Amino acid sequence: MTTTVTPPAVEARPAPVLRGYRFELVKLLSQWRIRVLLLACWIAPAGFVAAVSLQSVLPADTVFGRWMHATGWAGSLVVLDFSRSWALPLLTALVAGDVFAAEDRLGTWRHLLVAVRSPRRIFVSKGLASLTVLLLLVAGLAGSSIAGGLAAVGNHPLVGLDGHLLAPADAAGTVLLSWACVLAPTLAFAAIGLLGSVALGRSTMGLLMPALLAFALQLAQLLPLPVAVRLALPSHAFLAWRGLFTGPAQTGPLFIGLAVSLAWAVVATVAAYHLFLRRDFTDLTYDGSGRRVLVAGALPLAALVLLTFAVVTATTPAKGSGIERAKVEGSLATAYAHLYRMQTRELHRPDVTEAQLRATASCDKGGSRVADQGPGNDWRCVVSWHLPGATAVGTAIYQLDVTADGRYVADGDGPKEVNGYFQVRTSTGDAPNPLWQFDGNVDLLASTSKD
Amino acid sequence: MHESPAVRGRRIKKSFGDVVALDGVDLDVAAGQVHGLVGPNGAGKTTLLGLLLGLAVADGGELEILGTPVGRTLAVPDGVAGFVDGPGLYPSLTARQNLSALASLRGYDAGRGVDDALEQVGLTDVADDRIRGFSLGMRQRLGLAAALLTRPRLLVLDEPANGLDPAGKHHVHRVITGLAADGVAVVLSSHRMDDLAALCSEVTVLATGRVVFSGPVTKLAAESGALDYRLLTSDTAAARRVALDTPGIRVPSGGDRVQRPDADVLVVRGAVPAVEELVVRLVRAEVAVRELAPVVAPLEAAFLALTGAVPTDEEVS
Prior knowledge:
- The complex is a heterodimer of chains A (about 450) and B (about 325).
- By secondary structure, chain A is an alpha+beta fold.
- In chain A, the strands form three sheets. A five-stranded antiparallel sheet of chain A has the order 3-4-5-6-9. Chain A has a two-stranded antiparallel ribbon with strand order 1-2. A two-stranded antiparallel sheet of chain A has the order 7-8.
- Chain A has two domains: about 15-315, no CATH class; about 325-440.
- Chain A has 16 helices and nine strands.
- Chain A has helices spanning about 15-30, 30-55, 70-95, 100-105, 110-115, 120-150, 170-180, 185-200, 205-220, 225-230, 235-240, 250-275, 290-315, 325-345, 355, 415-420, and strands at about 160, 165, 360-365, 375-385, 395-400, 405-410, 425, 430, 435-440.
- Chain B is of the alpha/beta class and about 325 residues long.
- Chain B has two domains: about 5-220, P-loop containing nucleotide triphosphate hydrolases (Rossmann fold); about 225-315, Alpha-Beta Plaits (2-Layer Sandwich), CATH 3.30.70.
- Chain B contains eleven helices and 13 strands.
- Chain B has helices at about 45-50, 95-105, 110-120, 135-150, 165-180, 195-200, 215-220, 235-245, 270-285, 300-305, 315, and strands at about 5-15, 20-30, 35-40, 60-65, 70, 80-85, 155-160, 185-190, 200-205, 210-215, 225-235, 265-270, 290-295.
- In chain B, a hairpin with a 2-residue loop joins strand 4 and strand 5.
- Classes of the chains: A alpha+beta (about 450), B alpha/beta (about 325).
- The interface of A and B includes residues 31 and 118 of A.
């Protein structure tokens, strides 16, 4: 029998992480695919925003799309809303989802290991390099879309999701903060990309993992899931930035979304790290393992979802879909009051304040046989307000299409003098009556103290 | 003063699951020696080279590299360089960028050192070309340059002449023998016995994870024993009769049915003394010997014999 001898380990000199990082960065930036992505992210959004802002028809189905004629800041938010659906998960797939698999494809693992002499440092270098490239891409999307919007439309106030006006400086800060917020879920998807790339090797499935996960979560977001489940998913932070555009900001869902995303990023990165260190680099036939992904990746992440669900349920007032009659009424009344003031200014009428208006809303969903809660396009609301010096109470009817993520579109249904379609003159040109159609956002986590 | 060997391995074991890749392998490589590793596919060559490069750790046994024991971590001392399963190069980078990045990783001078390495392997003219367009041979040479960058004391090369044209092969051989002359220990694997014969002073033959021969190349050739020879004469039938009457010579079944486009060829089997006696007898019998050559080169025959891959009579014929 051969005796196993364990002599003292040799003190090898691994390459410093900084050098490994630089090498990984050079490799990534030398790929035509990454160069094309960088170019696209730094140029295309500006062109898109500028071109759309100059069109007569605006993408009103996208949040802030209807305000693209009014301010340059809206364009960037349209790009952000589009990016969070597809662009960001796809970018993470193409960068982080390929950073390890590329070495499998090229057969360069052994070369790299001999050069760096530390799988740990290789992992760290690759992670940092892909993170850097992703940050460059996201910065390009943000910077380019802002530049395009400001160049085409100008630096004007932005209408928030509760109708209040954000001064240009506030708009700038909030838009940049929104882009910063989506970095957290982007990190989570990047970590999923790393995990797929490590665990599945050359397999295309590794590359597609972030994109497939994004697709699955998009489908989930469309479903009327309980709010605690929605908040437990990493994709929620891609939506939660909208809460920054209300007053007060809807910080509850945002903070939970950020925390969940970062937890996903940590768990997936740690899983990828352990899988990577356990890998046998002398096995040329290694082509990943779906079983490893399941055991080392999917199960911990599923456990994380369950844990988050339990914590959110126990520590927040969240229940059901989070969309309740009182919340919808409060949100609509607030938005209506802000926008009424805006309409008043644009029609050159005497100014009124929100306090003077004392706007309230009364909503019903789907008639008397349906509970007044949950998403749907069958919300019908009557907004009432008072004018200073007048005894009569004004009323206006709105049809609301409320989606499961809390966003709604209010569509004026009369009287046409108040919320019908007509053009008003604004400082940036003619625009539709602000009370005709507008966007709002229900805080899914807010407690309902009134009915 | 006694200088420690570049590689000293004793009873090295390595398994992958149920598959035993190395089973008690001993290996000694002295400084300045070009040592060949040879064996059929799956014999354990790549695994052994991987251990020398620190890509894997042995499950058991002792391994000393450049006088330092290698432990249970993926680590080898400085001064070891090389590649297994082809040089790992990045096609989107130029030859110079590939080498510069490597030099930078290892903390070497990325300027002069890169130029010297490229010059040594004859790739100066294409230094700034992306290696996407390089031939296999050029990549092999660039891989060698990458290994040379770090001024190794132990160079580990897996099939370094793979894909090289005769001129390229000659160039690489010159580099390797030059390094050995400067005291660098070189361990290389190859399936080409002529490469090993041209380069190596010693070889280790592996079969199913075990060493079946280790020693000088000249000794390996002697291990071949009886060889098959192709014999072309002026009278094949007479030559066959003489061969059958010669002690120590066998004519494998079907040996006289071997045909060449221009003449009949007889295959005879025997050790060198018996073959010499056959030639003498043929001359006495007034049968002219036009050609006598081993069917398989002695080194290759020894390899086949040692690894249990000797062809049958039918295969020979």
